[in-house]
Amino acid sequence: MKLAHTLLTLALTSLASVAxxxxxxxxxxxxxxQLTQAGKPVVLDISAPWCPTCKAQKPIxxxxxQQPAYKDVTLLTIDFDSAxxxxxxxxxxxxxxxxxFKGEKEVGRSVGDTTPAGLEGLIKKTVN
Length: 128
Description:
The chain has 128 residues and is an alpha/beta fold. It is built from five helices and five strands. The chain has a five-stranded mixed beta sheet, with helices on both faces.
């Protein structure tokens, strides 16, 4: 009985932490359009696997997306090397770029920032 209680507690804790985290998923124009037209906060994360700045940004961004304050934010990841038409649409010319939207309005942009405060400041613009 005690094991069942412990397992139930762990399962509920996992569900609660998922519910308190922002979603991270690959970019699709359809998802972006649906989210922004619904007035939702969205951050585009343009990165490349070979980019050291992108690698430094990733754990910071992942950690921020786990915070309850950003549970309604969706982070859409875009591969810099394979999504050239998408990059052109958003006027992105370099990897390690983040573009923040509050609904359909762009509210901020960051290139190459690896500071927790700078990255959080950008994400915060989507929810305030």
